[in-house]
Amino acid sequence: MGKGKIVITYGTFDLFHIGHLRLFERAKEYGDKLIVAVSTDEFNSVKGKKVLIPYEQRAEIVKSIRCVDIVIPEMSWEQKVEDVNKHHVDTLIMGKDWEGQFDELKRFCEVVYLDRTQDISTTRLKSSLKKLVSVSPDEFKAALSVLEQLQKDLE
């Protein structure tokens, strides 16, 4: 890696988790400066994604990560070429789940698809939360009773 290499990655980064942090850390290994484009609420709506954390807060969280140098808003699919040119990007990093979908950008920069962090994703977290919220009060009380009994048995 030469001096001054610029790397960019894109994402929603809702319900920030260790997988997001690992993506940033691994992306930063490809260059000297990491730009993270955080999808705006409006763009997520276009993508059919519901976010729990508003853009301003997600961007602030991402900005606070030590290995992130710059945060920009992602407002459309088409802006990637403009971002690569405007910020003199050397490498675009995306998760493996996007493999092949940004290969057209190879005309402008290196494109790397990284493996996702195993056993963690925002989709999985949201699914778990949805299941938890859908539990009836009676089911919740019954589960709590079982847990209390287990705790007593372990004492």
Automatic annotation (TrEMBL):
Upper taxonomic lineage: Bacteria, Pseudomonadati, Pseudomonadota, Gammaproteobacteria, Chromatiales
Species assigned in the record: Nitrococcus mobilis Nb-231
Gene Ontology molecular function: nucleotidyltransferase activity
Signal sequence residues: none
Name of a matching Pfam family: CTP_transf_like
Keyword entries, A-Z: Nucleotidyltransferase, Transferase
Keyword Nucleotidyltransferase part of the UniProt annotation: yes
InterPro entries: Archaeal_FAD_synthase, Cyt_trans-like, Rossmann-like_a/b/a_fold
PANTHER family, sorted: FAD SYNTHASE (PTHR43793:SF1)
Protein name stated in the entry: TagD protein
Domain Cytidyltransferase-like: from-to ranges: 8-125
